[in-house]
Design goal:
The chain is an alpha/beta fold and about 550 residues long. Helix content is about 50%, strand content about 10%. The protein has 2 domains: about 375 residues, TIM Barrel, CATH 3.20.20; about 55 residues, no CATH class. The strands form 4 sheets. It has an 8-stranded parallel β-sheet with strand order 14-8-6-5-4-3-16-15. The protein has a 3-stranded mixed β-sheet with strand order 7-9-13, with no helix packed on it. Helix 2 runs antiparallel to helix 6.
Length: about 550
């Protein structure tokens, strides 16, 4: 958090205005201090500015030491984001290096008025900004609840006359670390032309986004990165959208705003238009050179309305599909990715890259990044550790192939294909090695392939489905209440998850505190003796 004032600084400032320790109307100065500290950011635009600086500092730290990569999970509600950050704070004692990923896929699938839809930019564009706003409201409320608890400790220490406990409580208040963290927000392909991209970018930034992720697909034909039928735009078109995002950041005073330029070229074999080349080696000619063409001859003449390209001292016809799209030459995806990334960094002003791949293969990503870094030495990636990959099968196949090549095993020792998914292979040398590689996958890809940020796009989608299925099977099956208690409540208590006290989690104590601030002993509080949340007081 920017320049957060300490308890003592705020008390000194207020003492000048209210030397008696009481504001007009009998308002206690300490109550004013508490509310000021709970309200860490005046607006969500202030959050965007502050979190952009956090990301820039993290990027610099990664450049100095690749082990300092950052992570996030995709969240489709403010509560998911809040619980993720609380879990990280319990685990590490800090939120440093932790972000929230806002997935366009999950907005389309779970957060739009039109129903559950695929990741094809069919959801309302305003839903993305609304979710950013919701996430930051939830994270800020987590701050409010936590700071309120700290002030309760301070008040208790003073009532006991315990100076040491009072000093400790003030120290805890001054050292409090916010739950607010950077959001990487998916703006898809911009939801229209470059002006539409700019207008939407401003809304996302005003909602709090310090980082925008945009992809090089055609916005009206956008597909999920792990589906077929992807169509890319010429590089100069995409660069215009990168500039639109930069202008939005600059206009709103988010000077450190971060742009992630995503390329889908590895799996995209089509383009919608052939750009105009004005000189050899320009962006258009470098894009056109990969088009699939066929020779023009007496037997295969050019016809009215067809397009011809002049290449290698002769005219050729670019292949055109019945839908009007132009295919690229097979096997050119990797080369196009490398050129995309270099152009996005050097001419589009992007800060981070995103290369969408079809399998989780460290060697494949590293080989592309090594080529990109010949032109841009400090090129860094955001990488999608996607649930679209069958991680178990992919890693087991990679181990099997490597061990066969090294002569460690015969090709008959383990089956090929989907049979490797079998549970019987979990406790084998191959299964254990694959799991070990999964455990260090993010460290490996960050060290070897320039990945600054590791994310999982859709984990809370799958987690919710799995958890509700697990509870439903037991509750509606034989276990009834035991299913809830054993799979949910006991685990909440034993893991120290604060949401077990659900009234407190959503701010019931905040309400009681405010009632006391304005009503004193007359306050009608919810957290009295009869509150059943007291059953969890020891946890």
């Amino acid at each position: 958090m920017g320049q957060r004032k300490s308890y003592s600084e705020l008390r000194a400032e207020l003492a000048k205005r209210f030397p008696q320790g009481v504001a007009p109307g009998g308002v206690n100065v300490d109550d004013i201090i508490q509310l000021k500290l709970q309200n860490s950011f005046d607006t969500h635009l202030d959050i965007a500015r502050d979190m952009a600086s956090v990301m820039r500092a993290d990027m610099a730290a990664y450049d100095a030491d690749s082990s300092k990569f950052t992570q996030s999970l995709g969240c489709w509600s403010g509560f998911h984001a809040q619980q993720m950050i609380k879990a990280v704070k319990r685990l590490r004692g800090t939120t440093k290096g932790t972000y929230v990923y806002l997935s366009g896929w999950m907005v389309a699938g779970l957060r739009n008025r039109f129903g559950h839809l695929p990741d094809q930019s069919m959801h309302e564009k305003t839903a993305v900004a609304d979710l950013i706003e919701e996430i930051y409201v939830s994270l800020r409320q987590a701050d409010e609840v936590a700071i309120n608890d700290l002030f309760k400790d301070l008040k208790a220490a003073r009532e006991k006359g315990d100076a040491a406990a009072e000093a400790k409580a003030i120290e805890a208040i001054d050292n409090f670390e916010t739950h607010v963290v950077p959001i990487i927000a998916d703006i898809d392909a911009g939801f229209g032309n470059e002006h539409a991209t700019y207008l939407l970018a401003k809304e996302l930034i005003k909602a709090g986004a310090c980082c925008l992720q945009i992809e090089n697909q055609v916005s009206d034909a956008k597909q999920c990165g792990h589906q077929d039928g992807k169509v890319t735009v010429p590089r100069e078109d995409f660069i215009e959208k990168l500039r639109a995002c930069r202008l939005a950041f600059e206009e709103l005073g988010v000077e450190d705003g971060v742009i992630v330029a995503r390329t889908d070229s590895l799996g995209a074999g089509l383009t919608q238009k052939v750009p105009v080349s004005t000189q050899p080696g320009d962006l258009a000619s470098e894009y056109i050179k990969w088009l699939k063409t066929e020779p023009i001859s007496k037997d295969n003449p050019i016809r009215d309305g067809e397009l011809a390209l002049y290449r290698n001292d002769e005219f050729v016809r670019p292949v055109r599909l019945p839908n009007g799209l132009f295919p690229f030459q097979e096997g050119t995806g990797k080369a196009r990715v490398i050129e995309d990334c270099i152009a996005n960094l050097t001419q589009g002003g992007a800060d981070l890259l995103w290369i969408e791949t079809d399998t989780p293969n460290v060697d494949e990503i590293a080989s592309m990044v090594n080529e990109i870094r010949k032109a841009v030495p400090n090129a860094k990636l955001t990488y999608n550790n996607s649930p679209s990959f069958n991680w178990t099968l992919n890693l087991r196949k990679q181990v099997r192939e490597q061990w066969i090549a090294e002569g460690k095993i015969k090709d008959t020792d383990y089956p090929d294909g989907n049979a490797l998914m079998g549970k019987d292979f979990d406790d084998t040398d191959l299964g254990r090695e694959a799991d070990a590689r999964l455990k260090r996958f993010q460290s490996d890809i960050s060290a070897r392939a320039g990945v600054f940020h590791n994310l999982i796009t859709l984990p809370t989608f799958h987690l919710t489905a799995k958890s509700v299925d697990e509870l439903s099977h037991g509750y509606f099956g034989e276990d009834k209440m035991l299913a809830y208690v054993a799979t949910v409540q006991r685990e909440e208590i034993r893991r120290g998850i604060s949401a077990v006290k659900h009234q407190h989690e959503v701010g019931s104590d905040l309400g009681d505190t405010f009632k006391e601030m304005v009503a004193g002993e007359r306050a009608l509080k919810a957290g009295g003796h009869a509150n059943t949340m007291n059953q969890f007081a020891a946890e």
